[in-house]
Amino acid sequence: MLKIEENISLKAYNTFGIEAKARYFVCVNTIEELIAVLELPNFPNKLVLGGGSNVLIVEDIDALVIRINLKGIQILKEDEHTVEIRAMAGENWHSFVEWAVNNNYGGLENLSLIPGNVGTAPIQNIGAYGVELKDLFISCQVIEISTQKLLSFSKQECQFGYRNSIFKTEQRGKYIILSVDFELSKIPHQLNTSYGAIESELLQRHTAQPTIQDVSQAVIKIRQSKLPDPANLGNSGSFFKNPEISKKAFEEFIEKNPKAPFYKISEDTYKIPAGWLIEQCGYKGKRYGDAGVHEKQALVLVNYGSASGMDILTLAKKIQASVQCKYGITIVPEVNIIGEIKK
Ligand code: EPU
User: Could you give the CA distance from residue 240 to residue 294 in angstroms, rounded to a whole number?
Assistant: First the structure.
């Protein structure tokens, strides 16, 4: 039974813990329910909310907010070496990773403890410690909001990039992801432990021949040591993307800042960690009212309790301006800002 509620607080539905109200709110548990909601004629403005882990809500939402609560994990097919798995959009991402790791299906372990849901993971091609969602992704099943048509998007069609996909760019707001298919490995797994922090964590554990369970545990430990748990301190993970700059800009930058960390992406592209830039601008650990910059990772903005979305956004803009002024580098948010565009 569909229950449309009015004036519902979204505080529990966004990991920043921002207090904002939805004019209307509905939670859908099946695809049939979702279709019924999309067909409702009285609600022209609709907004889909997944795990709420990558949004900053800056004002009350005068629309029907749809929470996707589709559940289920199933094996589609398997052979000796690989297994194809379908996870429904409303599954919690980390619970899904744990399920895979516990069943000894490899590939997702580096993506342990990322907040959010399965259905929102492809939108920004979540990534951590040398692995991105696209590395395991086969396809996703979606519904077109305007027609209620069910479609499938292949990996190629999703046009994945660094924290990016077609669902964030040209097809933004047109589809709702219902489920995602992944290809995972069976033993022997190919581990990805080249990321420095994972290597040293495994070394500390004296794990000579690490398993996917060891890698998952190492990633969990690293994340817990650096990144705040949204259950204790409101946040949305990295607030900004790491900026990519041209070779020419990089050469000028590194001459002036020889100690800066960087990653070479291609012959002409270099990535500079935004966390380092923000820290150099003096923001790490700073607090303005209840809006702040995390003390252990400057890329993460936090809500100490009652910050509004606007408080966080104001701080974000201040940081952007400061990095621009000191380094001439533009940093842009990774999180989706809801509400500001209209103004
Ligand atoms: N750094 C600083 N100061 C800081 C933070 C970082 O100097 O306050 C420096 C570090 O010393 C290091 C470099 O910046 O040299 C990179 O830091 P880190 O390894 O912590 O990774 P990141 O680039 O800041 C990215 C992702 C994270 C992901 C980690 C690990 C983005 C926007 N963020 O962060 O993803 O967990 O790498 O792979 O790409 C997320 O997207 O929400 C997220 C947490």
Answer: 13
Secondary structure element (H or E) that encloses residue 65, with its range: strand 61-68
Is the distance from the beta carbon of residue 294 to the nearest atom of ligand 1 less than 6 Å? no
CATH code of the domain covering residue 25: 3.30.43.10
Q: Do 116 and 46 share a domain, yes or no?
A: no
Reference 253, options 283, 280, 284, 293; nearest CA is: 280
Tens digits of per-residue pLDDT, 300-324? Answer: 999 999 999 999 999 999 999 999 9
- What integer pLDDT is reported at residue 342 of this predicted model? 45
Task: Give the number of the atom of ligand 1 that is nearest the alpha carbon of residue 236.
Answer: 42
pTM of the entire structure? 0.94
Q: Same domain for 170 and 256?
A: no
Burial class (CB in 10 A: 0-12, 13-18, 19+), 260: middle
Write the residue with the smallest CA distance to atom 3 of ligand 1: 276
Dihedral sign of CA atoms 170, 335, 105, 81 in order: positive
Please state whether 148 falls in left (phi above 0), alpha (psi between -120 and 50) or beta: left
The response to whether residue 244 sits with its C-beta less than 6 Å from ligand 1 reads: no
Q: Which long-range CB contacts under 8 A does 209-216 form with residues at least 24 apart?
A: 212/101, 212/104, 212/106, 212/109, 213/101, 213/109, 215/109, 215/110, 215/191, 216/97, 216/98, 216/101, 216/109, 216/112
Nearest-atom number in ligand 1 for the CA of 124 is 41
- Does residue 343 fall inside a structural domain? no
Nearest CA to ligand 1 atom 32: 241
Question: Do 184 and 137 have their domain in common?
Answer: yes
pLDDT at 343: 40
